[in-house]
Design goal:
With about 210 residues, the protein is of the alpha/beta class. About 55% of the residues lie in helices and about 15% in strands. The mean pLDDT is about 95.
Length: about 210
């Protein structure tokens, strides 16, 4: 049996890392092998691209260059890590995937979803996640959480309006993609994780 692919999305500071660990634990407890990965990154090539994308010294990077680098990292990630793992029966859980490109480059950078969709078709064809958990949180709270203890990277340094566009695209994607589960990340952690458990359990039950 092939593995399943779960992605976790959201604006900065929504708690992706914390809930990523929970999802991995739930899948392992159900008896499945798990790989936890991230985008941009996930491979040696992808991690080197990630360094460029997050570097504040790359302030002059054009939106199209950013989009192409994202999909260059993603192409390597899918071919080297994700598809082989799924074919081997391993579940893959990723911190971000293609929907972040729709939200950040299509919405935040205002390239438009059509350009991102064209890249998606070229790189991924019909490949999509089995479940996407969208941790939704108001932008101001998310940014405060994200930069509370660390210096802001190139993305986190953007203005609030940028992230409002990002959040709006995520919510629009959730309306049109049936594999999405929107989770209110503004609630206490115990309530957020109860919703995460329910969504992952539903997918496990369909095995």
């Amino acid at each position: 049996m092939k593995g399943r692919f779960i992605t976790i999305e959201g604006v900065e500071g929504v708690g992706k890392s914390t809930n990523l660990a929970l999802v991995a634990d739930l899948v392992r407890e159900a008896g499945h092998k798990v790989i936890v990965t991230r985008e941009p990154g996930g491979t040696r090539t992808g991690e080197r691209i990630r360094e460029i994308l997050l570097d504040k010294e790359e302030a002059g990077m054009t939106p199209m260059t950013e989009l192409l680098l994202m999909f260059a990292s993603r192409a390597q990630h899918v071919e080297e890590v994700i598809l082989p793992a799924l074919d081997a029966g391993t579940w893959v859980i990723s911190d971000r995937f293609t929907d972040s490109s729709f939200a950040y480059q299509g919405g935040g950078r205002q390239l438009g979803i059509e350009r991102v969709a064209a890249m998606q078709q070229l790189v991924l064809g019909a490949f999509r996640p089995d479940l996407t958990l969208l941790l939704d949180l108001d932008v101001q709270t998310g940014l405060e959480r994200a930069t509370a203890n660390t210096e802001a990277d190139r993305f986190e340094s953007e203005q609030r309006a940028f992230f409002e566009r990002v959040r709006q695209v995520f919510l629009e994607l959730a309306k049109s993609n049936p594999w999405y589960e929107v989770i209110d990340a503004g609630r206490p952690l115990v309530e957020v994780q109860a919703s995460v458990r329910a969504a992952v359990s539903s997918l496990l039950d369909r095995q």
